[in-house]
Design goal:
heterodimer; A: about 350 residues; mainly alpha; MetI-like fold; about 75% helix; B: about 300 residues; two-stranded antiparallel ribbon; 13 helices; globular
């Protein structure tokens, strides 16, 4: 009995499939006939050709651009596994003759990676939380409220973006010195919680632009329902800004992780607090010393840092970023899609 | 009853002041930050630019008026050329960056296969960083290879087909492009976010009305992403002005180390005043052109 049912079922399916196939064929033939009615000249319509050409062109452009964008990255990875001989051999460009994983080991030890990475992680995490939280708050105030001096504050925000840190670094250094903040993470972290810090002004600007584009109906409805301004912000507006917050978070993480100018100045008396990227310049300096004394390369042979090791160390410095980005990539891009920075 | 009606009468006024106070609370963190980390160092550094240091520590200094500035104008041989070169750089790079990043964003905004992969690729230079890592990659010769290989081949062709001067412009443009592209990851992301925010119903409506894609771009896309364009203009200009690979910035950085701090401050301020004026102009012009929901 069961066999019969199974057989019937299979036959049924096969029949259905057949039907579908026949239907498709008929459709095809019908289309063919239709096409045959149209002369060949007109069959390849301008629209179709245009469409195909445009698609091909777009892909060509995109692949070209992708190559330009990926070039430094690929070179870095390939260079990082090259051996000493391959580096000197200019014919070896893309495929190294042997893969030297030991470069990574040297880079790992040279950077004292396991020790310094935690400094970087801590600073980046705390500073990013500060930026994402406070800048959305300030940006909302600037976008949605009218109060005396608002334009002045906005100009101030633009100013804070514009004035290069290099100009302010010395007075800031003195101030932090007076407060005994030097040689701690405080100068890097506290400004982030008041809308300053590394490109703090930019995030305020970003959130302001985002909130400017949002329609007013939500807030008005919330106010009519008796929501206070903070409740409106935290319950309604901020969840709507989730995607902008994600953009802000990703950028803040990236920039904090790669920043080395400010940390280097504020932390230069306490090497154990240094961040990971700050360890890189010293490696490159050693490389430059070697290359400037290229003739004495045999003399310097006990110094093992070569370009491959520099590339390897650069790669492992940004590796946590790449891994983190892989995790948030989907959400980030979705966030970008849904961010509605234009708010329509 | 009378109490209630009084309250009702008062409400519009009270509402306005309450809104102001609320707005003030929202920007309060920024005001605190400005007081602590911004205004004092700002004035301090202006003061430096008008004084000269007596000791290396920078604790004692005396007022010298405009001496530092006049030095930069009259005696320094490097400052003005670098300054002008930087301004030229920014003025040329900003529109190119914007146009390219908008084009790329629009390309990856289309519904097609592999758009996710392309979007990720275009974001990679941002991950490589704006700071030392990017510089070291450019410095080690990665940048030169791209520009040189495209240069040498193209220059010879171009030189033959179109005269020398124009060819140099073209090759300069090409060598600029690669570096510009690497620095436009953030702009692409911001534009993409803006483009995604435009409701497709607008395009459908206009298509029904018989608009072409070209018209759609000028009449729908551009006005609606205008706030993002402003954001990107400001970001691009600032990024280019304050880039640490910028020679002027390097000079200012050096001044702290070499003890010519006051001169460095003067350099910074002169430069900064100019960039500020440019950015403010851009904001004022774009404010007229951008579309937003306004204040209430």
């Amino acid at each position: 009995m069961a066999k019969n049912i199974a057989k019937e079922y299979m036959e049924n399916r096969a029949e259905k499939r057949n039907e579908k196939r026949i239907n498709k064929q008929m459709e095809k033939e019908a289309r063919k006939q239709l096409r045959a009615m149209i002369p060949l000249k007109d069959r390849i319509t301008k629209k179709l050709v245009k469409k195909i050409i445009i698609a091909i062109l777009i892909y060509l452009v995109l692949f070209d651009l992708a190559f330009v964008f990926l070039y430094p990255f690929i070179t870095m990875i390939i260079d990082s596994v090259k051996s000493e001989a391959d580096l000197l051999n200019s014919t070896v460009k893309w495929i190294p003759s042997s893969i030297e994983w030991s470069n990574y080991k040297v880079a790992f030890e040279g950077l004292q990676y396991s020790k310094y990475i935690w400094n970087s992680v801590f600073v980046t995490a705390v500073a990013t939380i500060g930026h994402a939280f406070v800048c959305s708050f300030i940006g909302y105030g600037l976008a949605r409220y009218k109060f005396p001096g608002k334009n002045l504050i906005f100009v101030g925000v633009v100013l804070s973006m514009l004035v290069p840190t290099q100009v302010l670094i010395f007075p800031l250094y003195q101030t932090y010195g007076q407060w005994h903040w030097l040689d701690s993470f405080l100068p890097l972290l506290v400004p982030c919680f008041v809308g300053f810090g590394l490109r703090g002004g930019f995030y305020i600007f970003l959130f302001r632009q985002f909130f400017l584009g949002l329609p007013w109906e939500m807030e008005e409805a919330a106010r009519i329902d008796g929501c206070g301004c903070f409740k409106t912000f935290f319950r309604i507006m901020r969840p709507m800004a989730r995607s902008s917050i994600l953009v802000c978070t990703v950028l803040s993480i990236v920039w904090h992780w790669n920043d080395y100018f400010e940390p280097n100045i504020y932390l230069n008396q306490s090497p154990e607090l240094l961040l990971l990227p700050a360890r890189l310049p010293s490696m490159y300096e050693q490389l430059n010393v070697i290359s400037s004394e290229a003739e004495n390369i045999e003399l310097a042979s006990d110094v093992i840092i070569n370009q491959a090791i520099c590339m390897a160390s650069t790669f492992i410095v940004i590796l946590p970023l790449l891994i983190a980005y892989m995790f948030v990539q989907k959400q980030f891009m979705e966030g970008v899609e849904r961010s509605g920075l234009t708010g329509m | 009853m009378s109490d209630k009606s009084k309250k009702k009468e008062k409400k519009p006024m009270a509402m306005k002041t309450r809104r102001s106070i609320e707005g003030f609370i929202f920007v309060l963190p920024w005001l605190i930050g400005a007081a602590l980390f911004f205004i004092y160092p700002l004035f301090q550094s202006i003061r430096y630019s008008f004084s000269e240091m007596d000791s290396l520590a920078g604790t004692k200094m005396h007022w010298v008026g405009l001496a530092n500035y006049s030095y930069l104008f009259n005696r320094s041989t490097t400052y003005i050329p670098k300054f002008l070169a930087q301004i030229k750089n920014t003025v040329i790079n900003t529109p190119i960056t914007l146009v390219f990043s908008l084009i790329i964003a629009m390309l990856v905004n289309r519904d097609m296969k592999g758009k996710g992969a392309f979007r990720t690729i275009f974001f990679i230079p941002v991950l490589l960083g704006t700071g030392f890592i990017m510089e070291s990659l450019l410095g080690v010769g990665v940048g030169e290879v791209v520009t040189n290989s495209s240069d040498s081949m193209l220059t010879s062709i171009l030189m033959q087909s179109i005269g020398g001067t124009f060819a140099t412009y073209v090759t300069e443009f090409l060598s600029r492009i690669t570096i510009i592209l690497w620095k436009s990851g953030v702009q692409i992301i911001l534009f993409l976010a803006g483009l995604q925010g435009i409701s497709s119903s607008l395009y459908e409506a206009s298509r029904v009305d018989g608009a072409t894609e070209w018209e759609n771009f000028w009449k729908i896309t551009l006005p609606l992403i205008s706030p993002i364009i402003l954001l990107n203009i400001i970001y691009t200009m600032i990024d280019s002005f304050t880039d640490s690979s910028n020679e002027l910035m390097a000079d200012i950085e050096k001044s702290v180390e070499t003890g010519t701090l006051c001169r460095g401050a003067a350099m910074g301020w002169l430069y900064f005043a100019f960039t500020f004026v440019i950015c403010l102009l851009a904001i004022l012009v774009m404010k007229k052109l951008t579309f937003n929901q306004g204040e209430r």
